[in-house]
Amino acid sequence: MSELLIRNACVIDPLNGINGEIMDISIRDGRIVEEVSGNAQVIDAAGCLTLPGGVDSHTHVCGTKVNFGRYMSPEDMRAGRTARNGCMHVTSGYSVPTTFGNSYRYSNMGYTTLLEGAMAPLEARHTHEEFTATPHQDMMANTLFDGNWAIMEAVRDKDVRRTAAVVAWYLKAARGFAIKLTNPGGTEAWGWGEDVSGIHDTVPNFEVTPAEIIGTMIRANEVLRLPHSVHLHCNNLGVPGNYQTTLDTIGLVPDLNKTRQSLYLTHVQFHSYGGTTWRDIDSKSEEICKAVNNTPQVTIDMGQIMFGRTTTMTADGPMEFKLYMLHRNKWSNHDVELETGSGIIPVYYFRKSMVNCVMWAIGLELALLTKNPWQCLLSTDNPNGAPFVKYPEIIALLMSKKLRDQECALLEPRTEHHVPLFAIDRELDWNEIAIMTRSAQAKALGIRDIGKGHLAPGAEADVAIYPLKTSEIDPSTQYQQVIAGFSRTKFTIKRGRVVSRNGEVIVDGANSTIWVKPKVPEEYNLSNDPDFVRKFQEYYTVRMSNYPVQDVYLPRGVCIETEADL
Amino acid sequence: MNFVLNTGRTIKQGSYVERKNSDGYRDEASACRMNPVDMMELDLEDGVNIKMSSPAGSVVMKAFSCQSLKRGEVFVSLGPYANHIIDGETHGTGMPDFKTTMVHIESTDEDVVPVSRLMEECGGWPYED
Amino acid sequence: MRIEDVICPFCGCLCDDLVVEVQGTTVVSVENGCTLAHEKFTGDNRLQAPIKRDGRTWHPVSYDEAIETTAQILLEADRPLLYGWSGTNGEAQSIGVHLAELLGAVIDNTSTVCHGPSIMAIQEVGHPGCTLGQVKNRADVIVYWGANPIEAHPRHMSRYTTYADGFFVKGAFLERKVIVADVRETETSNIADEFMHIEPGGDYAVLSALRAIVRGKADIIPSYVSGVAREQLVRVAEMCMNAKFGAIFFGLGLTMSRGKYKNIRNAVELTEELNRFTKFTISPMRGHWNVYGSNEVFTWISGYPFAVDFARGIAFYNPGETTSIDILRRGECDACLVVASDPGAHFPKQCCRHLAEIPTILIDPHVNVTTHLSHLQIPVAVTGIDSEGTAYRMDGVPIRTRMLYKSRYPSDREILEKIYQIVLKEKGP
Fold this sequence. Notes:
Chain A is α/β, with parallel strands linked by helices. Chain A contains 17 helices and 22 strands. The mean pLDDT of chain A is 97.
């Protein structure tokens, strides 16, 4: 039995309605409990801000394309190097750090749970191998279905039940967590060098539209009773005028779940552009936020960009090629048979670029104009908008109008006429930041019930103690302290164990991988479906028996089993 | 006479990859394929021993005629025989000139040595199974 | 016992449809495999026990002594080199990288004399690729450049390209065009619809000529470019531009010849330019069954795919300096651990000489050429036959190899883990 007592913590725990109360937190064997014995190890939080461990609900940290981002970028590897130190392994990389680099840096910022944003089922084994080498966070994987042939055939036949059965088969095989759609239909079109340009375009050879894929998958998701909703990267990412596609998509969403959203739209900043070209691009954050405010069944994340160097990587292959045609740096592409695509290019976001300035403004506007912080989560689509180490700066920008004004003064001068940001006065408070960085993520991902994102007895003892005294700091003026405080915890506690202290990781990690297994009736088990099996053996280049990820790849797997409504 | 030495995979070499001390491996890795006209000029019969030299050293192989090779080009399966005369220079790339080394070929009475003997010449000591 | 869907641990094709018949600890038959697979599975030429050399005599030693000796040699070395790794599984490779990190060693894999230059080119211009199933299901034009799959990857054409029927290509043999570019006639060039017979060292110029034609500058091309006629170049460029889906596969003919990584860069840029007209991909024909896995594992741990130098504590990478051939040629390393590969057969003589001079230890199931240069060899089980673990196919698809019977040898993972633990005790936190 191991016991830990955190004394004098200034706790913000939004899921339990606690906002800035000074209290003690008791931990036994990795869980929060009512009280501990006198033998417990004691940590004095000394009135510092204490939050549930951070949850990132959309980040690219592990798997085929992330590793290719490292592989092709020695210049990025050189930009962030640390030597072996104590139990910390060597790390390399700035925008695409090595797995241990990601893990240590997230841990130092108080993050204990991450959702990898995109995993192709065929390459799932790779993602899980890297999860094991990201030891300080519990990991989950969005599983890509955007160009899945069996899904598109079931959608074409308007068969929600079969769609659900296909999802169930792949989630189990890939040890995945949730349904991810990246530019649905577009990644299949990219197999021929084409794309779709709106949700009602037809996908070549499959006679379905993105709207039909999205709509059917939202229903299949609820049939399977998955913890998370469909996780969508909308069509037309990064195209001027694309806000209309985003609004059309939001308009499709039925309200099917009482406990969370029915659709999660990711990195919405990249999907909120007005105008017709890069010259007349403008922010449509007001229109998007109006739709979000009126549609409680959707949740979004920001996809904030920050100025400087980073690497873009997504399953959205055609988008990366378009981006490459603009930047002309270097371009990698990796299409995955029967499933999806992906692309990678390095980018630099410039303050001197009006387009980049508009993008920067939109991300902040989304967070400031969405009334309910539970509906808009803090993200950079790491590393697409910026590496996650920039989160503290984003927090400071959201909490301080003064800091925003200072930054706005440095922007390309025309920006002011293209964005509403300059006129927005709202400053977020500590509670709202706590919601946007952990509690709302846990709720949106549906992992509150397994003890994530809150600190009530029974919860996982994942706790972040920041060197911030909320009663003594005025974030609207003392934003430098806010940035410093959120960059480095005093203590990060993972499953009841102090793993990181004042910016140094002090133990070897032992994370879990959380995955979802929907239980379906035998007649919906596609392993017995002759048509599915035949197509699998004919068109994949891997045998069906060699496809599923073996248990050995999840040494500490946590399986959420669901009863499908089939 | 001077030639451009090209090396590469052959299926026979590949199938002996776990039996590199066998006669079969030696025969394949020390076979120098040449254009028949070049062989005629050097007065070489099929299967005779030749000495191949470069600034990095020399090694004995056997010559075999190969219609599909152009004149002035020879092909040897990748392996210790070819590597005995390939220089370690990589021009800053990590990769030696495995496919474009200039070599001199002449006939010889010397024998093709076994792989283990080649390594002994490098300072090693043969291990007999 | 008959085992289906067995994965072949020979070449980068990583075929996973073999049917293997096992009796006790012997493979008696292999169905679906190529000649190379057959030899690999049925070969019985294992080294029986660890062997050690004192001067000119070899004698058997226990595993414990061999492990202890290895750890001590590595601990005593100032600049150890850990080389090989492509013939073992990812789990063993991972221990290798951590061992290198602990020792401050250089760790390098066989890419260094294979597709290392391809990696350098990708680091300059990227890599527009895909999984092999994309090619099988869609491609109507296949290009093999400086590659001879019939001899090096015998089932590549039947499983993934020329003869593989796919969803959009029902009659592959009739519907697909095959272009081969090489400096010599090969079995592969004999079945090509177009064979560009290039003069040795002329690949870069031919690639440049094709790029010029794709960019609409056919009129500046001279009548011959490195032995290839202009008419043929124009024909080939048009075949590529008119393809619905084209796929280039390139081999060591580009990485090892004059120009090295610049050849690959040119080929990647040609691919990128073709993507402005149609869909085109390019892929290296990776040699060892898990060489790509060693690149992947090295990268997620250290940030670099090969030639990683931990001497300064951080991970440092500079091909030409931290690559094995250069380190050995300069006589720089003072101990070498070779795992699952055979530098004795594949490195220039100069490098072999240095390997013989320093304590070289070989962890490999078979007596190979490096054995004769070593001071110690530790035999281990063969991944994919009597040991299992992760492998990455040439296109990055990870597959778990199978253990067909229980081995009487330890796995290289077990041996490396024991060495690691001894070193950790000395060097750890």
